[in-house]
Amino acid sequence: MILTPQELQKWIYEGKSFTMVDIRPEEHRAEFPLTNLDASVSDMNSIPESQKVLVLICQFGIVTEGIIIEQELNNAYSLLGGALAWIEFQSEKKDLSQWSRQTVLPEIGLEGQKKLLNATVVIIGMGGLGCSVVQSLISTGIGHLKIIDGDNVELSNLHRQPLFGLEDVGQPKVKVAKEKLEKLNENATIEIFLEYLDKGNGLSFIHDADVVIDATDNIQARQLIDRFSKDANIPMIYGG
Fold first, then answer.
1. What is the pLDDT along the chain (240 residues), one digit of tens a residue?
2. Superfamily of chain region 116-238
3. By the 8 A CB rule, do 101 and 113 touch?
4. H/E/C letters for each residue in 168-207?
5. Which CATH code for domain 2-106?
6. Domain THIF-type NAD/FAD binding fold, which positions (predicted)?
């Protein structure tokens, strides 16, 4: 079973009875001490028996999930994101445990995740490529997403644009996308523009972006996006 730092904090406020067990090696406990938690120390092979609910803590929240399964600990929870997610929650009041499977990667880490949360990405085009890209972006924690497309959902779109369903046919793609993406990350800011990019509006769409993604399907739009991105000195990614 999984427990987020925010849920654990609620347990503490409510006075719930449980036992904290820190299974990290001594060097991790010394370098990353737990804030506002009273935890007993153990190793993964000698988890203490307890009549109370156990909350197990490792560095990233992955080892403890495995221990609970392997040892069939029915009364135990693993702290999602581990000690690092708890420490971050205590210092910044932000629960980043949702992204713990990517913050464990040294190429990202907690600092990288914060950059993603503060990033603005503009994506132009909500076809087959755009649908897949926005789902990945919002799931990885991009904090501000701007979506530009003037099309409505058509029946012929559904086999290759997985963000849309039969109930969406006839609706603006950007409107449907916003509604569905907000369910994946309710804290993200999603701006939508039911327009096609042209010479007159392009710079206004991308001026504050960290990255521009070209998911259009015609050479004229791609040339405009390329020119605007160069003029604004903003990195541009395209695919097709």
1. 899 999 999 999 999 999 899 999 999 999 999 988 888 887 767 776 766 899 999 999 999 999 999 988 888 999 999 999 999 999 888 899 999 999 999 999 999 999 999 999 999 999 999 999 999 999 999 999 999 999 999 999 999 999 999 999 999 999 999 999 999 998 899 999 999 999 999 999 999 999 999 999 999 999 999 999 999 999 999 987
2. NAD(P)-binding Rossmann-like Domain (3.40.50.720)
3. no
4. HCCCEHHHHHHHHHHHHCCCCEEEEECCCCCCCCHHHHHC
5. 3.40.250.10
6. 100-240
Number of other CB atoms surrounding residue 64 within 10 Å: 29
A 10 A CB-CB count for 235 gives 10
Domain extents in the chain: 2-106, 116-238
3-state secondary structure of 101: helix
- Any idea which residue has 């999984």 for tokens? 2
Neighbours of 13 (CB within 10 A): 8
- Helices (H), ranges, the chain: 5-14, 26-31, 63-70, 82-92, 100-103, 109-117, 128-140, 173-184, 202-206, 219-232
Tokens (6 digits) for 42? 């153990």
Q: Which residues of 185-220 are buried (b: 16+ CB within 10 A; e: fewer)?
A: beebebebbeeebeeeebeebbeebebbbbbbeeee
Phi-psi label, residue 218: left if phi above 0, alpha if psi -120 to 50, beta otherwise: beta
